[in-house]
Amino acid sequence: MKFLKTLDSKFFHDEIPSKPMGKYAHFITIRVTESYPLFQTDGELNKARVSAGIEDKTHISRLAMFKRKQSTPERLTGRELLRNYKIGDWEKCDYNVDFSKTTPDCILYGFAIGDSGSEKSKVVVDTAYSITPFDDSHQNFTLNAPYESGTMSRQGEVTSRINSQDHILPQTFFPSIVTLKDPTETGFLYVFNNILRTRHYGAQTTRTGRVRNELIGVIFADGEIVSNLRWTQKIYDLMSASSQINPPDPLNEDDVLTNANRAISQLMDEECISHRDFLGESFDGLLAEVKSISSDESKLQQMLTQANSESTAYAQKYILKSSEKGKKGKKAAAAAE
């Protein structure tokens, strides 16, 4: 069943191939913080010392959103939908514990289960960096845990449950390109829908970490495109030249989206690969069509069901059979001993 009328079928495979076939779908995304998320390792916010821009060689520290901070919440969104509509082997799948090896999540985002098999992720996500410097993008907060009365003392004793933590400020922007290798149409829609739906990233996701994903385009190519860092640096150069970066004021979202489009277009003009860009007005129709599918329960279930059929067929052909051969080989080796 074909879902998209705005895209040519040449961008997609009819079935998931077992080997790299040179088709790439790049989701061009701006991640916008809407609360005070935490992207941290060992208790500190992740950051990197890099050049401010491509033209501006000044060294600055930028907040870093590591790849797993992005891909894990998005794949969990997809897994949640599969369980909600009871599609595929959803009962067996337990993230980081036991994978079914057959669902769209397992096949597209990959898995590893020791000697029981593995599948390399077809969704490629790299570290994203804040446009603004670290010093202008975070704030330290004092945290406490009061007693039932709402105070920090009981019977004359003051609790020591007071701590401080750096948080990322709202309206901090992280340009991020999510790449899907060798997509089928439903695999493309599955990943697209996960990006659109995911709302929380980072630590303590039940209480903070609100992030909105603004997709500004999709680029189909026969290879990988520019890195998140270079795209971020190009946006910084354009905004700096227009005097649109004025710390400590947050960036204007309209300015960011406009310059993000300009930056990716200019960078793609420098690429040496074949590509078809859906940016600006050419992307609006595609985005509207994808949203019409994801917001219609019947169409969404049809899409998820077809995606699961494709991933199960792939698993039966390339994963489960090889696993059985491996098990038989081990038994034969053990018997020979």
* First-residue to last-residue Cα separation: 52 Å
- With strands numbered from the N-terminus, the spatial order across the biggest sheet is 8-14-1-15-16
The gross shape turns out to be globular
- Count of all domains: 1
In short:
The protein is α+β, with helices and mostly antiparallel strands. It is built from 8 helices and 16 strands.
Describe, in plain words, how this protein is organized in 3D.
The protein has 337 residues and is an alpha+beta fold. It has helices at 67-84, 104-109, 185-197, 228-241, 253-269, 281-294, 297-318, 320-336, and strands at residues 24-33, 40-41, 44-45, 47-51, 59-65, 111-112, 118-119, 123-125, 128-133, 138-144, 153-154, 157-158, 162-168, 173-181, 211-221, 275-279. It has a 5-stranded antiparallel β-sheet with strand order 8-14-1-15-16, sandwiched between helices. A 3-stranded antiparallel β-sheet has the order 4-5-9. It has a two-stranded antiparallel sheet with strand order 2-3. Strand 2 (40-41) and strand 3 form a beta hairpin. The longest helix has 22 residues, at 297-318. 36% of the residues are buried.
List keywords for this structure.
single chain, 337 residues, alpha+beta, five-stranded antiparallel beta sheet, three-stranded antiparallel beta sheet, 8 helices, 24% strand
List strands and helices in order, with pairings.
Elements: E1 24-33, E2 40-41, E3 44-45, E4 47-51, E5 59-65, H1 67-84, H2 104-109, E6 111-112, E7 118-119, E8 123-125, E9 128-133, E10 138-144, E11 153-154, E12 157-158, E13 162-168, E14 173-181, H3 185-197, E15 211-221, H4 228-241, H5 253-269, E16 275-279, H6 281-294, H7 297-318, H8 320-336
Antiparallel strand pairs: 1-14, 1-15, 2-3, 4-5, 5-9, 6-7, 8-14, 10-13, 11-12, 15-16
Helix pairs in contact: 1-3, 3-7, 4-5
